[in-house]
Amino acid sequence: MPPRLRRLVLVLLLPLVLAAPAVAQTFTDAQRSEIVDILRQALRQDPSILRDALGALQEDETRARGAAQRAAIARHADALFRDAADPVRGNPRGDVTIVEFFDARCGFCKQLHPSLEALIRRDPNVRIVMKDLPVLGPASTQAARALLAAQRQGRYAALQDALLTLRGEPTEAVLRQSAERVGLDWARLRREMEEPAIARRIEANLRLAQSLGIEGTPALVIAGQGRDGGTLVPGAVDLPTLERLVAEARAGR
């Protein structure tokens, strides 16, 4: 076998040996022994084979993870894109939807927020669905409750802006100050924060994030109009990246 072809075979074979013991068990003992000997000899002669094989394995895992995420997004499309209870920013009839899972205390969420605001200003056909995902402790849950209660007074976006530009912690005193500054009735807000319906909405967001494999905030799901699939984007991204992802979703990619 020519050296280049032999190397290719080894690069393709090694991930099977590393990642799929069930496949390896289909070989006889003699075949497994021969394969191991060939791999050992090849790795001594050219250690870069291992690097290339691991790279191929990582690419396979990335593709599989992406396919699983797209399938999960399609399964949960109604909860993601069509829940009438969710707060919406931007154009409610936009042809691209960005679902943002965020925690009001998350530093990376605060970093992402100006980019999303700039995107809304620059692209009038983007719809942003907000999913409160308090993952950083009780103070985050309290802030999420305040935001969802503020939605009932039509001031969700105003309070979100206040909390995502806040430098300190959203203590109850700070929440009250922020709420009253944006025109909220604090007594009503504080009372409605404790309603079971708001707790159920937060729990539903947490379950949805878990179903999608979301492990932290922020996380974005971006989809074009009429499509139940979409792209999951973990972490904060800058405005040019957001614009590229929106353009791809709009083009159906």
Could you explain the architecture of this structure?
This protein is an alpha+beta fold and 253 residues long. It folds into two domains: 70 residues, no CATH class; 174 residues, Glutaredoxin, CATH 3.40.30. The protein has twelve helices and five strands. A five-stranded mixed beta sheet has the order 1-3-2-4-5, sandwiched between helices. Helix 6 links the parallel strand 2 and strand 3. It is elongated. The model has no long low-confidence stretch (mean pLDDT 86).
Task: Please give a quick description of this structure.
It is built from twelve helices and five strands. With about 250 residues, it is α+β, with helices and mostly antiparallel strands.
* Total helical segments: 12
Arrangement of strands in the largest sheet: 1-3-2-4-5
User: What is the CATH architecture descriptor of the largest domain?
Assistant: 3-Layer(aba) Sandwich
Q: Mean pLDDT across all residues, rounded? A: 86
Terminal CA distance reads 41 Å
Number of domains: 2
Quaternary structure state of the chains depicted: single chain
Q: Which CATH C-level class of the largest domain is it? A: Alpha Beta
Task: Label the structural class.
Answer: alpha+beta
Assign a percent range to the helix content: 55-70%
How many beta-strand elements? 5
* Largest sheet report: 5 strands, mixed
Order of helices and strands: HHHHHEEHEHHHHHEEH
- CATH homologous superfamily of the largest domain - what is it? Glutaredoxin
CATH topological fold name of the largest domain: Glutaredoxin
Shape descriptor: elongated
In angstroms, what is the radius of gyration? 24 Å
β content, as a range?
Answer: 5-15%
